[in-house]
């Protein structure tokens, strides 16, 4: 029997982790800390956004996640995870 994930309260003295992913029809992200989810979001892409390239969809989910959780991460350290190889070097 597996246990369901329960959202935990954020600890602003510790770093946050944002995991993002995009698919052909939607995007989603998880804000977690110490291996436990704090919050999550998902969004269905409209027909115009579904025509975006993979790169654009992956970058779009990062922008949306940072906007969605701006009050958690902009004053604290955070790590951003994406499975898209090109975006790994976004800061360089």
Automatic annotation (TrEMBL):
Pfam families, alphabetized: RT_RNaseH
Residues spanning the membrane: none
GO molecular function: endonuclease activity; hydrolase activity; RNA-directed DNA polymerase activity
Alphabetical list of InterPro entries matching this protein: DNA/RNA_pol_sf (IPR043502), Retrovirus_Pol_polyprotein (IPR050951), RT_RNaseH (IPR041373)
Keywords from the named record: Endonuclease, Hydrolase, Nuclease, Nucleotidyltransferase, RNA-directed DNA polymerase, Transferase
Keyword DNA-binding: no
The Reverse transcriptase RNase H-like domain, residue ranges: 11-91
Domain of life: Eukaryota
Gene3D superfamilies: 3.10.20.370
Protein name per UniProt: Reverse transcriptase RNase H-like domain-containing protein
């Amino acid at each position: 029997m597996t246990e369901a994930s329960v959202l935990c309260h954020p600890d602003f003295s510790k770093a946050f982790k944002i995991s993002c992913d995009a698919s052909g029809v939607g995007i989603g992200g998880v804000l977690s800390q110490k291996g436990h989810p704090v919050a999550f979001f998902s969004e269905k892409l409209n027909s115009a956004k579904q025509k975006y390239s993979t790169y654009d969809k992956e970058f779009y989910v990062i922008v949306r996640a940072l906007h969605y959780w701006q009050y958690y991460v902009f004053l604290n350290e955070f790590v951003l995870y994406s499975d898209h190889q090109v975006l790994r070097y976004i800061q360089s």
